[in-house]
């Protein structure tokens, strides 16, 4: 059972016609005790901002929040350049950036933007190579050489180094990607839309086993759960669908029993701003108090 206090954040949709609303949400989160903001990365969505540009704009307008792509679309983002972007913004913000990384999905759209269409095994290998390249770019080595089938470094000078050690958190679901998470990554980013509480336990065991096999402390691999649902005024509708008390019970149990280290919230229905306020001002303090008890 974990005893660390969980972190709480928001999952933002980078709608290009809602910049004012996104800046308001980030400012609210920054001043009301939240810890994280994650922003999805789907470059082929014509109505979406570029995720990294939006993260930069919001990060420099805030003072406490950590930001991360949830998750960066690796097939459309060169890992060496992505590593330099993360390090640059981490320096600018005083250590408030992490990297959520995804192996790819929606392959027709990725191919439509010029990205490679990869099989599951190819995407797995490409992600492993990207992690090695990103860490090399953040290192203090004078020259970095990383051979690879999909990504490589050939005698590049790394730098600048980030202000702190950004986490590399994988949005993994399959057995081999979960094993890669345990062996090589700093965290796991499942979503409640596809990862049930039971799956969190099953997949978490795979991550732990892979971490132990790699000589790592399994507890060092963080779990950050994207939670989508509705905080209602009415009856209990089940997991992540009910009044504040239901949400407090669900999130507390997920933290204490499923080892979830952080929750990244976005409402599935209703007034998003009102839902965020209810989550921030009612659910989050009550979960923190329950965990402390």
TrEMBL record:
UniProt keywords, alphabetically: Monooxygenase, Oxidoreductase
InterPro entries to which the protein is assigned, alphabetical: F420-G6PD/mer (IPR050564), Luciferase-like_dom (IPR011251), Luciferase-like_sf (IPR036661)
- A Pfam family (short name) is Bac_luciferase
Which positions fall inside the Luciferase-like domain? 14-228
Q: Which GO terms describe its molecular function?
A: monooxygenase activity; oxidoreductase activity, acting on paired donors, with incorporation or reduction of molecular oxygen
The family database entries (Gene3D superfamilies) matched by this protein are listed as: Luciferase-like domain
CDD domains assigned: Tetrahydromethanopterin_reductase (cd01097)
Q: Does the keyword Electron transport apply?
A: no
Q: What is the protein name stated in its UniProt record?
A: Luciferase-like monooxygenase
